[in-house]
Amino acid sequence: MRRRDFTTMVGGMALACARPATAQTSAKTWRLGTLSPGAPISENSPNGKVLLATLAQHGYTLGGNLTYEARAAAGQIAKIPPLLQDLKASGVDAIVAIGYPPALAAKTTGIPTVVAFGVGDPVATGLIDSLAHPGGSITGISDMAGPLSAKRLSLLKELAPKTSRVAMLWNRDDLGMSLRYEASAAVARSLDITVQPLGVREPDDFEGVFEAMNRQPPDAILMVSDSLTTLNRKRVFDYAAAKRLPAIYEYDFLVRDGGLMSYGSDLAESFDRAAALVDRIFKGAKPSELPFEQPTRYPFVINLKTAKAMGLEIPPNVLARADEVIE
Asked: So which residues are the signal peptide here (predicted)?
């Protein structure tokens, strides 16, 4: 059952389709690379489709004046540098990256890079000089962890008012996600919520995380999403279901895959805007002069099927606020 059927996104795509394609005066074939720390942003993936559809509206036709090279590390961060060298050798004109480790590695190549999401605070990590004037070779889409974390925690409290202890899972080896955790933890303390810090560095660490929660049971879980936590999401879903723990995630694809609820940026919008930044780079703009942008849409999604399987009753006021309810 959908509450709002993502009409805003659909309307935005319709407007994009209505825009006349920008004529390309050059006979050049543009080469775009993508780099993900997890699964590849393939041509047929949801995010890849948005990226290429928006580029098509700007006049770049795959198989015509655009080639597309998707690379992914499958959770093995050590693979990122050679993947980047492969992209560089193929002569890409720009890279669309996901996450802080790929963005940091791309910075060393000097290839113009657009971060689509998952980079954390790019200023605090030293990735860029400022949001308004990034400097260097990187621009993209960012978000503010503090306000988003406050919203996620407030949604957990609305769902389960007695929540006072929240387990936070994040990748300790990802500086962007560690800073996101710290921002989330600071917000939690301001809301009188005790934080149970559960950082992981590799898949085997999840068993230790679950053991820690068995020893000191939290009231809820907040998972900070990067390639490591996302690739191990089913283990978190299963633990939360077995213990009947409310859990909130950062992106709606995690809820569609079995998580309870999410609040975070609309990835379709992020990839649409990333494509627009790529177009500007292809037209001669320097990433250093293109300000980082903030998402404007943050869908709240609930998986009612997951809630029912857990025996968890979702209050009517929480259901009414959801942008989408998955049954």
From this structure: 1-23
pLDDT number for residue 190: 86
Residues of the chain with pLDDT under 70: 1-26
CA distance 21 to 54: 10
CA 112 to centroid of chain Cα atoms: 20
Instruction: Judge contact between 80 and 37, C-beta under 8 A.
Output: yes
Taking CA atoms, 208 is separated from 42, 99, 110, 194, 204, in Å, by 34, 25, 39, 20, 8
Residues facing 71 on adjacent strands: 35
- Whole-model pTM: value is 0.88
pLDDT at residue 5, as a whole number: 43
Question: Do residues 119 and 144 lie in contact, with contact meaning Cβ atoms separated by under 8 Å?
Answer: no
pLDDT value, residue 78: 95
Distance separating alpha carbons of residues 212 and 238, to the nearest angstrom? 16
Same fold, 7-143+267-289 and 145-264+300-326: yes
- pLDDT given for residue 26 in this prediction: 57
Strands laid side by side in the 138-140 sheet: 66-72, 30-36, 94-98, 113-117, 138-140
- Could you tell me which CATH number the domain at 7-143+267-289 has? 3.40.50.2300
Could you tell me the residue ranges of all domains in the chain? 7-143+267-289, 145-264+300-326
Query: What is the spatial distance between Cα 214 and Cα 245, in angstroms, rounded to a whole number?
Result: 12
Of the candidates 260, 263, 269, the residue with the CA atom closest to the CA atom of residue 251:
263
| Cα–Cα distance, 168 to 158 (Å, whole number) | 18
How many degrees, rounded to 5, is the angle at CA 61 between CA 57 and CA 63? 165
CATH H-level, domain 145-264+300-326: superfamily: Response regulator (3.40.50.2300)
Place of tokens 């992914």: 72
